[in-house]
Amino acid sequence: MSGSTENVTQNPSENIIEIRNLTYSYPAYKEGEVPPIIFDDLNLSVKKGEFVSIMGPTGAGKTTLCLALNGIIPHVCGGKFLGDIIINGMNTKEHTISEIAKVLGIVFQDPESQLFCMTIADEVAFGMENQGVPVDLMHTKVQRVLEEVGMTGRDDTNPFHLSGGQKQRIAIASILSMEPSILILDEPTSGLDPIGKKEVFSVVDRLKRERDMTILMIEQESERIAEFSDRVILLNNGHIVADGTPREVFANEEALRECGISTPQVSEIALRYNDEYGTDYRFITMDEALAVLKK
Amino acid sequence: MSIDTTKDPVLQAIGLEHTYDNGFQALKGIDLTIYRGDYIGLIGQNGSGKTTMIKHFNGLLRPTKGKILINGVDEATMTIGKISKQVGFVFQNPDHQIFCPSVSEELAFGPKNCGMSPGEIKDSVEDALESFKITEYANHPPAILGFGLRRKVSLAAVFSCRPTVFIMDEPTVGLDHRSARELLDIVGELNSNGCTIILITHDMRVICENTKRGIVLRSGKLILDGTTREVMSNIEMLEQTQIRPPQVIELSKELSPPDVREFPLTTDEFIKKFIKAKKAM
After folding, report:
1. Is ipTM over 0.95?
2. B219, B265: one domain
3. Is B276 part of the contact surface with chain A (CB cutoff 8 Å)?
4. Does the pTM exceed 0.90?
5. One domain for residues B186 and B235
């Protein structure tokens, strides 16, 4: 390893995800066309057990990043791919998508795009079947993950008859059953109503507390991000504009303005309060804001 | 402040009930008057009856009991073609309604079918292109535009029919914050120019920052109807339907004496009331 770039941490073995000098563009639509560069020398590492939220406007490269992490880029999509992505010690260029899938699972934005079985039990077992898990173990695991997402007792229900929040929880269960060490959620609540959002976030909260998993969540719901995340990354035009704790990032006015993203209202209030009183508050919860404002 | 009832009613639901063929009663007696120039935020969980109610406004469903008046005329006497000239509805997914080879043809499709003259069609297409700031894309095929632009095209294509009432289902879903802001600014302008707007959304910040009146449905009944401030300040009632108002409202409640019933709706209002006013004291 050349090992002199800033992004290499002191103990690289702790990093379950390492993106080194990634430059990527999709293949050209038409012959002779020069496709836009999505990432230009991107470096990012994620430690085992971290909960990282990624925010950014449309076109920032958030979904492309997900696809690169599980090897769909470049294996399926092709394009110009320079640099390395190391997932749990595996270089994605040298390993197949199915090998990577054993450690890294993705839940997509639209649950219907990943549900296709006739019953909940079949849906959740599908990934394990493809991994050759013995049948009796499979039954036990199906029940365990359904319990984790709060969807037990409905094994024979058709997933398409469920509400949006329930469908998304089944999609999460079907990934959890394969016991990945890394879970990626690509805007898991964007199409859901408030009850559905609440259901999905409570599952995410439980995973964070009870499983020793590394979670990468692409989300726009800043208040939830503030609640769950160890770390927030703002992505814009394929570049990392800010990277820190929710408290640091939601106080970084310049970066927030550049990305044009929404922050928790309490964080906005902190910045405006600081303008008035010359203080340096960085609220991310209502309780913190109240403690100061009640004075 | 309360709702301005001095303006003309454009849409009225009187004892509106709807029971589907399978016996499910989706609407259980709705009485509601919508006035010209209203900007309504329609709130309710999935299954509360929002979509069923809206489908009565644009004639896709007919009441099983009660009636709907559009500009004072009983909807039962009108054809769906006639209704759709007055009540425009924009789907949540723009791709469900985009199908023409160019943006300007997409925008002309509705007016043509409403029987406008070629001159009127030209004017209303130009007006819609301009209102939604998509004139530069007039000759582009809409299907290959980005999602935010496709959304604008789908709204403009309904607006070009010059409806009296403009209903939008979750117009900001799938847009990033900046594009959503831009779209809502355009909708706000349409409203200032006299267009009656009904905005369906689950985003309470969008409701607070944009609409003037709030309507909340639960299990087929209208449970709240008032100014956006009155409705969003009624935290207890919203809670019953599992809706949480934005943080500024909850903070304001904590910071206000118990008899205060109306709270700031936006960060700006909050700052003015609780930080600037306090500092000035």
Report:
1. no
2. no
3. yes
4. no
5. yes
